[in-house]
Write a structure and sequence with these properties.
The chain has 237 residues and is α/β, with parallel strands linked by helices. It is 36% helix and 21% strand. It has a five-stranded parallel beta sheet, with helices on both faces. It has a five-stranded mixed beta sheet with strand order 6-7-10-8-9. The relative contact order is 0.15.
Amino acid sequence: MNGTLYLIPCPISDQTDVWDVLPAANRAIMDSLDYFIVENTRSARRFLSKARVSRPIDTLEFAELNEHTTAPQQIEALVKPLLEGRSAGVISEAGVPAVADPGAAVVALCHKKGIRVVPLVGPSSIILAMMASGQNGQSFAFNGYLPVKEPERSRAVKRLEARASSEHQSQAFIETPYRNVKLFGELLQCCAPDTVLTVAADITAPTELVATHTVAEWRRLKAPDIHKRPAIFIIGK
C-alpha cells in the first residue's frame, strides 16, 4: 500500500511562532512522519525544531527538491519511498509548498503514481495579500516574477495592466526583495494614474505592511519601506 504525501505549510516570517500561524491539527501529522521532501534541509530542520515535533530531528530523513532537482530520475527517487508504503511531508522555504515552489514536481508525480496527496492548512502570502488588498478576489492571477530587464519588464507590466482592465482580474506578482524598490518606482512610471496598486510586505510578521492606493495617490505619498522585505504586488482596475 502506498504512503501519503502531506503538503506542510510553514511560517512565512522567521519572526512568527510556528503555532501562531499553523493549526494545532497539523501537529499529529508532522509528529507521525520521518521522511521529508524539502526545498532546503537546514531551514526545514529549523522549522521542525521550532515546531517541537516529537521525533528527534537527527532521526529524520531529508531529501531536497529545489531548482537543482531537474532530472526525472531525481523526482522518481524522491517518490520511491512512498511507493514502498512510507508517508512523506513536503516543506517549502516559507509558506505553502507546491505554489510558486519546486514542490509541485513531486506532487505531479504522486498523482501519476496514484499516491494520495493531502494539503494541510497554513499561511500563503499570495492568498493573504489578496484577502487584505481590497482588490477583486473573485478573479485574480499570480504571475510569479516579471522580467528583470527593460523593455521586457515594462511590456509585461502593460500586459498585466491591460488584463486587469479588460477582464477586471487582479494581477499579482513578486520580485527578489532587494529589487523591490526599483520595481515599485517602475510601476509608478509605467502604470496609468487610475490603476490600483497594492503593496503587501512581511505578511504575518510584526512588521507587516499592506497598502492599496491608485498609482496617482502613490505618486503623492512617501514610498513604502520595502527594501529587502518579501513582498507581493497586485495591480487592478
